[in-house]
Each structure stands twice: as C-alpha cells, then as structure tokens.
Amino acid sequence: MELRRLGSTGIGVSPLGLGTVKLGRNQQVKYPSAFELPADEEVRGLLDLARELGINLLDTAPAYGSSQERLGRLLGERRREWVIVSKVGEVFENGASRFDFSFDHTVATVEQSLSTLKTDYLDCVLIHSDGNDLRILENEGALDALRELKRRGL
To answer: Which residue out of 64, 82, 92, 101 is catalytically annotated?
Structure first.
C-alpha cells in the first residue's frame, strides 16, 4: 500500500487505518450487536495482518477503554512501525462519556496516553468533539494545549 504524506508533517501514512475501539471498549458503542473484546493473541494477529497489508495507522483514544493499554503492551519494540493517532476531550468512565476540553486536562490526557502507550511521542492528536466544534476551538484550552505539546515535541 502506497503511503501518503500526513499534511505538512512529512509522516508517511497508509490511506487506510486500523481503528482500535473494539480492542478496548464494548460498552456504549454504536454497533448493532454486543461483542466480546478479543484476546491479546487475536490482537497481535490483527496487528501483524494490518502491517502485512501495508497499514501503518492506528487510531486510538483514552475513551476507547483499555485500547491504549493493550497497544502499549503489544506493540513493544514495534512501536516505530506505526503512526499512532490519539485523541483528547472525551473521557469514558463507569460506562458513560464526559467531555473536558480544558488546557490542563488536554495536557494530562496526552501525558497519560504517552505513558499508557509506552511511547515518548504521538504522531497526531485529534480533539474528540462533543459536537460543538466552534465552542471547543474558540473558547476552550484544548487547541492551545495541543500547540504547547507539539512545541515540546510530544
């Protein structure tokens, strides 16, 4: 699969990515039927198959339950083979989502994701919107926090 440049970053990214919500969360998801989370061995096989097919993009988020923890444990030395996209803003706790787009929460979320994913950088961080994008961008601290985190090389 031919890689494409991710914006002006110079990062080569596959046009298809692997979403990881189903690796870590099976509550309050918008799927027609219930499902069990896959075992680590199944996730390893999925990651191997994705790489064999040329996919190098992993989409994850703290709101995806244990997805980031599992990826951190399973990627290990292979982390550099992947473009990891995470998110800030949505928190999933006790079976429900809540949103926090403050500067401090955004910084804490990225720092926690780095720790959980066992990496020292994220390739891309998105804001997990609550549907009110302009309010988030104009009145909350998430965008300023992301700029600061980028300046710090995280």
So the answer is: 64
